[in-house]
Amino acid sequence: MSESTLAVSKTEVDALLGSYLGYTRTSTNWSTEDQSVIDQCRDAGLVRFYNEYDWTFIAPSTTITFWPTVTGTITGQAVYSSPSSTITASAAKFFPSMVGHSITYDDSSTDYVITAYTSSTVIVVTGDSSSEKSGDTFTITATNDGDFRLPDDFGSLRDTLHFEENLGYAPLNIVSVAEVRRRITASSSTGVPMYAAIDPVANSGSTGQRINLICAPPPSSEFTMYYRYNVLKNALATSYTYPAGGAAHRNTLIEACLAEAEVFENDAAGIHEQKYQQALVRSKRIDGKNGPRNLGPMYDASVRKRYWSNGSTHTYDGSVPT
Question: HEC states along the chain?
Fold first, then answer.
């Protein structure tokens, strides 16, 4: 399907910003410094808009795999290209959540840290592992810590985490990092995860902030978890032309960027800030139509009886309580 002709694009936003800032609407008239200011105002406006509200369009559903110890063999020789090596497994063994963990070869005392996931059979690790060859066996262990890497664009957890269908396990309880660590250290047992916490990874500044999800108890087998998260959106570029939100939020997106240009130009909020606030109210109303129509089933864990609520009417085991 084609893009709505009312959807605002990077080109249009830049032209409007160029006109407001006095650079004209024509990009060929802009100096490098002019373009830099336009980029700054556009990026600031979009970041503000994205962070203004829990928009449904920046919270996709996805999965994360919890895994215990994984063993396998590689095929072909590991390929080294400083400062990393690419390793290919002979079968699907890798998950995106393995990033940050170490891979150990049974014939070597050297551990290599996994820095990138390419596919279920290909990962990238730190250092030169080109001595490893086809048929060599490896081990990746998560059992001792229960840490699993979330996507690089993870901003915040939107809902809870649910197991795949038909397993019958309750959603994970989201608690503090300290509570999860306490439960992990209190027992060496693995099992079905019951608790989870969001744990920011220590950041040296060589990459952006990364986030782990830690769970307790650590998994005794592979579990696929379903969840939604707020995405950290990329800046608009030639290959990424349209901001999230689409035509429904056209005016709000434009006014957010113009409001930032207004502050840059005048060092004070003005008419575009007012127009942005007015458009924001409409955008929130529009996005709210994509929200849930009811709150779903709720369970009393002690008696396992079902409640249901749509926000105004409540039922218990199918009947309205009196």
Answer: CCCCCCCCCHHHHHHHHHHHCCCCCCHHHCCHHHHHHHHHHHHHHHHHHHHCCCCHHHCCEEEEEECCCEEEEECCCCEEECCEEEEEECCCCCCHHHCCCEEEECCCCCEEEEEEEEECCEEEEECCCCCCCCCCEEEECCCCCCEEECCCCEEEECCCCEECCCCCCCCCEECCHHHHHHHHHHCCCCECCCEEEEEECCCCCCCCCCEEEEEECCECCCEEEEEEEEECCCCCECCECCCCCHHHHHHHHHHHHHHHHHHHHHCCCCHHHHHHHHHHHHHHHHHHCCCCCCCCEEEECCCCEEEEECCCCEEECCECCC
pLDDT per position as a tens digit, 199-237: 999 888 888 899 999 999 999 999 999 999 999 999 999
Bigger pLDDT: 300 or 208? 208
Cα(first)–Cα(last) distance of the chain, in Å? 51
The confidence score (pLDDT) of residue 28 equals 96
pLDDT in tens, 165-203: 778 899 999 999 999 999 999 988 899 999 999 999 988
Indicate the domain borders of the chain.
10-55+245-288, 61-66+153-229, 69-141
Domain 69-141 has CATH 2.40.30.180: yes
